[in-house]
Amino acid sequence: MARGKKEQELVFGLDIGTRSIVGTVGYRDGANFRVMAQYAKEHDTRAMLDGQIHDIGKVSETIRDVKTELEKQLEKKLKTVCIAAAGRVLRTVTTNVVHTYNSEREVTQEDIYALDTMGVEKAFEEFTASNDTDMQFYCVGYTAIRYYLNGYTISNLAGHKAKSIGVDLIATFLPDDVVDGLYKAVNGAGLQVANLTLEPIAAIQIAIPEKFRLLNLALVDVGAGTSDISITKEGTITAYGMIPVAGDSLTDIIVQNCLVEFDTAEMIKKSVGTCETIEYTDILGLPQTITSKQVTDMLAPAIANMTKQVADCIRELNGDKTVSAVFVVGGGGVIPGYTQALAKELDVDAPRVAIRGQEVMQNIDFDNENPMKDSTMVTPIGICLSYYEQNNNFMFVQFNDEQIKLYDNGKLLVVDAAIAAGFANEDLFPKRGKTVVYQLDGKTKMQRGLPGEAATITINRKEADIHTKITNGDKIVVKPSTVGEDAHITLEKLPELSEKIKIIVNDTEVLLDKFAMVNGVPQLTSYQIQNKDDIEIRGWYTVQQIAQLADIALDGTVTILVNDVPANSETKVYHDFTVKFVPRTEEDEQAENLKATEEWTEESEPAEEAGTDAGNEETTENPQEESSTTAQSNTNDCMVVMVNKQPIVMRGKDEYIFVDVFDYINFDLREAGGRNIITLLNGRQAQYMETLSEGDIIDIYWEN
């Protein structure tokens, strides 16, 4: 069954009670509901206690018997059913939601249903946040207390134009084991659940029509295992509750006092008030008799205790106040003395606590033979009517051979089933191989692994994906996603190494490859980069290396010039530098020796004078060493650094600091080109007064 189908479609309602199962089939005909078939069957054993299913298989058998009998009456197969849960561990949440439209529009029934669904989802979130137990709960019913149109209360939103709509809503929750037991018992009888509601919600559909809900009333549905309670006032249902005491507790007293089996005790209880003397046989096989008055006196203390618990619950749900009147339905409430005792506990006049049965069924038409119209039929017919009011049902799907139960909000997807099944989220999406993280010239770089294959998903053997909608009974198979290949990168893949170094060697242009130092060790371009490697790209060669490449021997027979400045074998040569190896002549050697002698003489004269003044002390300096050192300093008085990826030769000082760079570059500090200047030294923030070293990498630019 599904919402939106025509009203004449048959609705099968099943009241799965502690003592019996009552089935009703009918359809809505305008304002009335037309009953086509009815059948009730008691459990052969005590398969249910206090509203809780204890033996799923036995309950399934009884459901199947009821279904088979109804099918005979209808001459039609029944496949789906509406059911109700008893509130043995009932929890309720009252919440408010508001939905605002982009522009004013007319409110439809679908808008109202969507608003109610939003309220249920919000209530579930609030309940989950406050749930202090290990049990998982499900929403089994809800009631809209009041609606709002543009912030003002209204009884019916449909057809009105609204900018915003809202609802105060009470949602009811029961533990998973209660809901799960009901579904399994129904499925075991060959039926699918079309709608699930709460028993007091179903009962109030019949027992307290909307026109009576302006009054502060209580409805008590006294079953065999539980007494379910609901409160109305100001035109709506305001609260739900329950106590786990009902008709079976009275039957158990008869069992103990009359020494009979449970079914015999149930017969005695039902005979009270209709027979003056009741005959029965005890468990010893002896015939016995008992009067209705004796049974009533026997049960009086238990009835007083039961009605006190009901009265206390009613006051708690009603703000610690009594109610104006109480309607009683269900088989457990017809025992003589029950309504009088409840009236006393609530401190209301006895006539204001009354059994409700046929008198509240004016809008129910019976087309079946010998219809049942007493108070035991209020809840079964109400279960049928709840189908038209709300769609609080669950669905079951098979996920990788495991049955999963989901709350059906009409929008369930494969991903929802996966989450409910505890399927790992990462197994739905492609997984990448391991990532390699490394340092390149002081900056962090990353090479991601390759993505694997996404999970393969089928629904009923047809290809699907995580966003495919699912329906009840679907068989979902998900094969986990795979892991891709780990990251793999070699030095030759680095774009920084693809650039060439151009130098001019003896007036000939030469292109040289850059090379990499990995963790301080030179590596071939085929080297595979490992995680946490520290890589430095060398954009320079020494004169010694260039000489080796050019097959030039540095044996003292040549003069080395770098950018036309005398240099030595360890001088670094960068992009666009010129290197000259000039053969040395005798004249060169004589000139160098003469220059060295002159420099030595100039340096030594002050020392001699000082020595004379001091008493002609001997000096320990070696003239040749001094000459050699001086000559070397004169040929190595420059420093090369890289500024904005260009080599800069700095000359004239023994030591250079960062601000000296501005003397060599075209960078106007007086004219702002952005918010502030970025100054980096080897990839970090530079200090203007810190000392520079040969080969330092400097970046200077305006930040926009």
* Apparent shape: elongated
How many domains is the backbone divided into?
4
What is the CA-CA span between the terminal residues? Answer: 65 Å
User: What's the Cα radius of gyration?
Assistant: 47 Å
Q: Would you tell me the overall average pLDDT?
A: 83
Q: Return the CATH topology of the largest domain.
A: Nucleotidyltransferase, domain 5
Largest sheet: 6 strands, mixed
Q: Count of helices?
A: 14
Task: Give a verbal description of the structure.
The structure is a single chain. This protein has 704 residues and is α+β, with helices and mostly antiparallel strands. The protein has four domains: 302 residues, 2-Layer Sandwich (Nucleotidyltransferase, domain 5); 85 residues, Beta-grasp domain (Ubiquitin-like (UB roll), Roll), CATH 3.10.20; 94 residues, Roll (Ubiquitin-like (UB roll)), CATH 3.10.20.30; 68 residues, Ubiquitin-like (UB roll) (Roll), CATH 3.10.20. The chain is 27% helix and 34% strand. It has 14 helices and 41 strands. Strands 11-6-1-2-3-19 form a six-stranded mixed β-sheet, with helices on both faces. Strands 14-13-12-17-18 form a five-stranded mixed β-sheet, sandwiched between helices. Strand 33 and strand 34 form a beta hairpin. Helix 4 crosses helix 9. The longest helix is centred in the last third of the chain and has 28 residues. The N terminus is likely disordered.
